[in-house]
């Protein structure tokens, strides 16, 4: 098998294997780029984004500095809510714990001075589902979330290899070089233009 044949097969099978990921990143980029349009469509429905789940008295010590993940994990354990989460300081008297999956999201607001905990469930939206898949990454959640992160790493490497095999195939076919140079120059020029201008 020649290098060109190997490159062709690698390029073909990588393209097929990466097809779901290419589609996810392509389709999910649309609501990212047209966020105002999708927000206006949703606003026209007149539906609340959040639905109250509960409000209760609750007490937990919140550190003034440092990571809020331990406090967030404790709040989730005490309320029986599971999932990947982030804990953020909304202000000097409030922390928010945001629990997110592709299909549902829950937000817990803890008001420190009032010792009050409020939980709200977010209404499902397809645009948020897509952007959530696009943006999901990292290795701080554990379990299948880390597996997702590893797969994303392999997908990125696969995309690089897919590009390299495409360039190699182009270079090995002299009849395509002129148009190939034109396409490469146009792509690099447009990228450089926006990189400098923006």
Helices and strands in order:
Blueprint: H1 3-17, H2 19-33, H3 35-43, E1 50-57, H4 69-79, E2 84-91, E3 94-100, E4 105-111, E5 116-122, H5 126-135, H6 144-172, H7 177-197
Antiparallel strand pairs: 1-5, 2-3, 3-4, 4-5
Provide an overview of this structure.
This protein folds into two domains: 3-40 and 132-197, no CATH class; 50-122, no CATH class. The longest helix is centred in the last third of the chain and has 29 residues, at 144-172. α1 packs antiparallel against α6 (144-172) and α2 crosses α5 (126-135). The protein is elongated, with a radius of gyration of 23 Å. It is of the alpha+beta class and 198 residues long. The protein starts with a helix and ends with a helix. The protein has a five-stranded antiparallel sheet, covered by helices on one side. The protein has helices at residues 3-17, 19-33, 35-43, 69-79, 126-135, 144-172, 177-197; strands spanning 50-57, 84-91, 94-100, 105-111, 116-122. It is 56% helix and 19% strand.
Mean pLDDT: 91
Q: Could you tell me how far the N terminus lies from the C terminus, measured between alpha carbons in angstroms?
A: 46 Å
Order of helices and strands: HHHEHEEEEHHH
Low-confidence stretches: none
